Amino acid sequence: MNNFLTSAKRLVTLMVIFYYHLKGEALAYNCMGVAYQKLGQKNPDHYRFALDNHMKHSQIGDIAGKFIASVNIGMVYSALGEIEKAGSFHQTALKYAIQMSSVAGQTIAVGNIGSIGVS
Predict the structure, then answer these.
(1) Using CA atoms in the order 106, 107, 109, 112, what is the torsion angle rounded to 10 degrees?
(2) Where are the domains positioned within the chain?
(3) pLDDT, tens digit, for every residue of 17-41?
């Protein structure tokens, strides 16, 4: 019985470490993506690195992370002049905002959709 409890405690510890590792990894991809996004304003070649990092963030993030990644990907595609792709990602962001019942998130997504329609 004692071995079982020890093993169970170790398993819980590993699960907690894995959970926080993924959160940290997702945050790191987001931060790198945003940094490359900023650099892309001076050198558009950096936008591809931004997209790579935001896509990785989207793959491993929780629903809020997927929302943020979708917004950022939409913004990068908009900066690249790829309006259809930008619109698609902003619509995806809107879906995540609705799933989270986030009025603020919905406002951001709808505003981004509107901004690419105007440009």
Answers:
(1) 170
(2) 23-118
(3) 767 777 888 888 899 999 999 999 9
2-28 mean pLDDT: 71
Angle between helices 83-99 and 63-79 (to 10 degrees): 160
pLDDT tens-digit readout, 46-59: 999 999 999 999 99
Enter the DSSP assignment of 62.
-
Its pTM stands at 0.83
Considering the domain 23-118, what is its CATH architecture? Answer: Alpha Horseshoe (1.25)
Furthest CA-CA distance within the chain: 67
Two tokens at 31? Answer: 């931060």
> Residue 110 — φ and ψ, nearest 5°?
-65, -40
In this structure, how many other beta carbons lie within 10 angstroms of the beta carbon of residue 104?
Answer: 9
Tell me how crowded residue 75 is: count the other CB atoms within 10 A of its CB. 22
Residue 25: which residues within 8 A CB-CB, separation 6 or more? 60
